[in-house]
Amino acid sequence: MSLKELLKTNIPRSVFILIVFLGYAICGTLGTYLFKYAINDLTKGHWDRFVFWLVVDFVISIFSVLLLPVGTFLFNKQIQECLHNIRAELMRHYYQSNTYKVSNIQNQLNNNLKILTDDYATPWIQVWTNLLSIIMAIGTLLTLHWSLILFVAIAAVIVLTLPKVMTKKLSSSTAEASKKNAEFLNTIENWFSGLSELRRYSAGARLDRALGQDSRKLAAANVNRRKMQGISISINGLGNAIGQIGASLWSGLLFFAHIITLGDWFIAGSFASTIFNGLWSVISAMTQMRSTKKLRQEIAQLTKPISGKKQGTKVYGVECHNLKVQYQNGESISYPDFTINKGDKVLLSGDSGTGKSTLFKVLLGQLKPETGEVFFTAKDGTKISPQKAQLGYVAQDATLFPDTIANNITMFNRKLTGKLKEVTQRVQLVPDLAKFPKQINTTVDLDQGNLSGGQRQKVVLARAEIHEEPFLLLDEATSAIDSKTTNEIIGNLLDTDKTVLMIAHNFSPELKDKFDYQINLKSNKKSGNQNDN
User: Fold this and answer.
1) Which CDD domains match (predicted)?
2) Quick check: is 49 in a domain?
3) Most exposed among 175, 210, 246, 497, judged by the fewest C-beta atoms under 10 Å?
């Protein structure tokens, strides 16, 4: 988020907002300036003129009071529209990105955008209104006596220098608070994903410890951030007080020297107060805004479009040579060389921990191997890198969305609606659909879980079928489906001309024989133990 982004969100409204704030500043300055005539008439005993100037001042004050909330309302509307655009850009980024965590997305879309709203966008109201008032107050003081401007200028330099003491510390404290919030959200995601297991084994105390540790760190980071803000405000306030008192004292000397009138002395003090209070507000706002610099840079980076994310090329085969994967804990696993040609039906087998799912991550481009070469082949045999490959993938844990079963299969592509009947028959989903009143138009309820594990897997298998990817990776895709139905589904799949690489356990010998061949992985890990299926 930047000021340019805020203003460009709705340029006509931005212009109108600035006009409203200008009107607010003019009314405030004019009301204060005209009050000097009321003071002078009061000292001369002109009661009727004194009342007249009070009435004029009252009318101007009403306009001033009305303009500020109007400008504030419109600017807050501008902020929300800008945030809406940023959220859309962030979601496009995460949609195109291969690596992300839900907790990171939550932190960016919720906590970090709230910080930007409170500590960057909203303070611009203070900056604009006070800067306009300061400029007009300086111009008015110039009409009273030139020495007042000189004094204010010297004091202003001192006041403006003080905030630099805290800028760096305040920025660091804001970035640290954001970091600790992201860690806390990550802990919530990791532990609450297994909440039912913790309840089953009465392990709530461990959950409390895990959340408590990160919660205390987050609380400490927020306390430190507020502490830095408080110190910064105190330093700014000290400079402001010195400036106001000094200006009142100097204008008092001018009055006793008969250079200015009592009314001039009064408004000189008021305008000095406007200038230094305004400077204090502007400096506080700017210090607050500077504290978000790292955060704004991070979000700006995330909202940049990801280059090279174009539609991939459909693949029909794959080759792997000298493939080796290195884990963060130092363990590594090597894979045998293999080639899968167009139309091959291959069963990937091996004991738990031999790296079957890890191999799939490599093929999907989610994990970069330490050494070796992986490339896919197009229909004509052309080599395709994993980053540019388009292939079908069905995971053990079926990913569904809160929409109709039909849309979950077609993935919202209406052109595929005509193929629904065929694919639901191929994956044996028709008997399951018959149990629902709305059948294929039943809405998937992710909270209540109205589809069983097997039914969810059938929906995802139908999704892979209907999109006609020529190469399919299946990772325990029928683990929740009974053996008889599994035999029928896999049998139908193997009768196609698709290239299939499938991980599965407990297949019957008859079903295994339907595959062209097996790639059997053996444990060859070095150092340590790694969970992988």
Assistant:
1) ABCC_MRP_Like (cd03228)
2) yes
3) 497
